[in-house]
Amino acid sequence: MVDQSAVGRSFTPVTASVEPGRLRYFFNTLGERNPVYRDAEVARSNGYSAVPAPPTYLFCLEMMDSDKPFEFLTELNIDLARVLHGEQSFSYHAPVVVGDTLTFKPRVTSVTDKKGGAMTLIVVETAVTNQHGIHVADVSRTIVVRNERVA
Amino acid sequence: MNETAKKAPVIGERLVHKTFPAISRHTLALYCGASGDHNPMHVDIDFAKKAGFPDVFAHGMLVMAYLGQALTDAVQPASIRSFSTRFAAITQLGARLTCEGHITELLDHQGERRARLVLTTKDENGEIKLAGEAIVAL
For B43, what's the count of Cα atoms within 13 Å in the CB-facing half-sphere? Predict the structure, then answer.
């Protein structure tokens, strides 16, 4: 089981680019038709320098361009089959658009046992900066580990 | 598309409302590729069964992406200051989701007018799948 010693652990930073083709595939998958996403001209007329990333896409980019997208699980000896996503949050500080290159730096900020150890909640917070060194967002995920049966 | 946000916002107003087609296995396969989240739980029934689930189920982040889409139908992506959700229940195959957001508070943050939205995503039976909130600049 993951314990408090995991708090403060950080993982390999990930650098990812907001590529137009991959983003189009994401929009097609979701049936997204909003012109601000689908038409660069409309994006520009709304004040963006290029098509903006949609609100949850930062989560995707970090996994997409990671050599080890489940590194925090393997590093903490957590079985992927025992994991559920508990909570997710994004704080946005500056726009992210097509063409940006982002760096993600994840670290464990809390470990909490629930239900007498039947579950463990792990919070991983990731600071995101862009190619100009601007801190564009903070992303936080809470994963729920369903632990082996406790005696 | 930002018309709604430009009207004077009122507490209690439903700013966000969108329904989505039933989630298919095909959607899950496409989202697996499009999102970079290759967790087999959502596309490989053998893996899901071994993990104790009757079938594959939707990525929480797919459901949150739908909620995000509903949100940016109502407000500009760049106006969102924060967006968070709790994944209250597993979203099953076939779920037809409805996303809603109501204004619960009007705020002033260092001179910027903002609204707090309480967000929900429910399936066709009214079961809450995601419960969250967003802070948006007005």
Answer: 14
